[in-house]
Give the backbone structure.
Amino acid sequence: MSTETPTRTPPSTVVVASRGQRFTGAAVNYVDERTSISGLVRELGRKIFPDHWSFMLGEVALYSFVVILLTGTFLTFFYQPSMADVVYNGSYVPLKGLHMSAAMASSLDISFDIRGGLLMRQVHHWAALLFVASIGLHMLRVFFTGAFRKPREINWFIGFVLFILAMAEGFTGYSLPDDLLSGNGLRIIDGMVKGIPLVGSWISWLLFGGEFPGTHIVARLFTLHILLLPAILIAALGAHLLLMIINKHTQFAGPGRTNDNVVGVPIMPTFAAKAGGFFFIVFGALVLMGAFFTINPIWTYGPYDPSPVSAGTQPDWYIGFADGALRMMPPGLEFDVFGHPLSLNIMIPLLVLPIFLGLVAFYPFIEAWITGDKREHHIAERPRNAPTRTAIGAAGVTFYAVLWATASSDLIATHFHVSIEDVIHSMQLLVFVGPVVAYLLTKRITLGLQKKDREIALHGFESGRIVRLPGGEYIEVHEQLDEYERWRLVSYLDYEPLMVRPDERGRITVAQRARAGLSSWFFEDRISPPTTTEVEREHASQH
Amino acid sequence: MSKFSSKIRRVNSPGSQRKTGRRSPLATVALIVIGLMSTGGAYAMFSSTAAAETPAVTQTTIAAGEKLFAANCATCHGLSVQGSATGPSLIGVGAASVDFQVGTGRMPLAAGGPQAEKKPVQFTDSQTKELAAYIASLAPGPALPSSAYLKGDGDATKGAELFRINCAMCHNVAGAGGALTAGKYAPALSGVTGAHIYEAMVSGPQSMPVFNDLNITPQEKADIVTYLKYLDKNPSPGGVDLGNLGPVSEGLFIWIFGLGALVAVTVWIAAKAN
């Protein structure tokens, strides 16, 4: 092959590069000599992306964040973060002549009197919702495939911080227009802060610069929204991406895909093209949503006024779980302790939610401690092959979903024609029962799927074809998997519960016992992958 | 009166008077009679045309209303409107209440439940007015609103503000409705006629409080009607309004359609070319 190549190529093209090529070469050389960037490009350009759709969810988050930055910059040109009283005199008739804050008036001007402003506002808000939603889905993917295991625990934690920052960004942004809905949201936050014993009122006064709502909060939230939070978010995002490059991608097990390699396409050039295209698809989808679907119609909500509270007042979806936790609290939990009010109806959500979020944040470390597994893992597990983790995840998702659904208890009541009390009571029951049921069901289902995989790996599929052998015996022909397909089913790690072992001083510590107990909870019920011997034996004795 | 009659007597008494060029004294009488009759007739005609403008409450309408009531409503509200275990007394609820309840199909009630549901209207407009006239004839109560307040030509800004302060906590700030306790709910207000909105405010149907004319003046009620008509006539400037349900429908939309579509795209991008 190589001997033929010179004869094929005409000599003329080899000699002179075109003017454009020469310019590019010179320019690249100029830059490289001054920055030594070629090393970085070489490293980055060779980063491999395995091609599985679920690995692109984080990209959706990244791209929607870029859209948020672009549209947000546009909005800052026209938005006034001030609670000064002005009379609205813009185009929207049912608000004309009304007193409102400059923040609200400028948000209305963005919506009605600045060319393209409404589109930008709506794209910004839709992108924010998509940002948090895609982060959530990305986290679920990472969780259920075990992609957070060593060496990626720290990156999981950074990702979790990004999730919290995204929610904080969302909430501060939601409050900026100073409309009725966002004001009600702020009032709930104010109430939660004031519910903290002893320091609550002080923190609230510090936050709002006096009694709620005051005249400072919008400007303060604006600074957080466009300066502090984005700065931290971008730094954390940079660290997240850098660690992703350092740790490399995980991949699903397959022939030729081992714990020591990554099979996929390199960034340059294919993946970069695909990803660039995907960015425009995400951007396009968001612009379509912003163009055709109303989001946050502040003109309907009207300016903030502490007296009216609208029915159906909800936070944006990502704060819903916290709102749901508040709505779920039964009455009669407020006490008076030595003249100080103790509002357990607020304290319980304020304690339970951070515990839940803490478990999410530290799950990789918890699981690593329980399994005692110090190995590096670069193969993404199929959820069925880690039954306990998948079941824990399902329980967590159910817990979150029940809280989330409770935030829309009133809409569930009106739209399904049931009483709101029944909805709340069902949710109060479900928040305890739901996760347990989800855990047990998921664990059974994953074990069932594993059994099925094992069965298929060993015996193949039933073909439904009955053959009569010369001796008169009837058998059903089983269709066997080929090597490639079988590989997917049999290559997963088999864990066993840890044994309780005495330490060097001959003692068995409480931590040891706890760990052994948790470990047996994790790995007691398990289906071992079929070994090569088993597969071969089965195939030898096969019909 | 006595003076007048004595005058008549006086002019009548000299019956044997000789005919002169002067007109007969009877002519005066005839003139008075004609005058009275024509003014009376004209007045009667005038008042009957006025009755076409605002519903005429005559004994006939009331009687018709009473018959309709006895046939359709008395089972629950009692033959003499005194109420029963299954329905409240309607003494003093006023014509506005009847026109709202019957005119929106809430009454007659199809079945017991947390609250009367809006359903196809069971009576013609004139029957509804007859029922209203009958109930209004029993005791004073909120009357049917004057059409001047229902045109939707009031101050939408003021109406919107009043709506946010007085109505939005149950009906939602965009009039999309909301949940109340024990399966009751505040209905959505889109497509409700101005008359029914006004009547609901003055009569306070079911769980709704009464907003009397001192609380919210008729003109302010007209402003609220104007605002709701504005919302009906003007679609959301931002595009499809997703039911005006706020962040819940927005959240569902982004998860199902937004993220759903993009996940489909990721599957497409990551699919192996065959």
Notes: The two ends of chain A are 46 Å apart (CA to CA). Chain A touches chain B through 73 residues (CB under 8 Å). Strands of chain A lie at 48-49, 85-87, 99-101, 251-252, 265-266, 334-337, 340-343, 379-380, 461-468, 474-479.
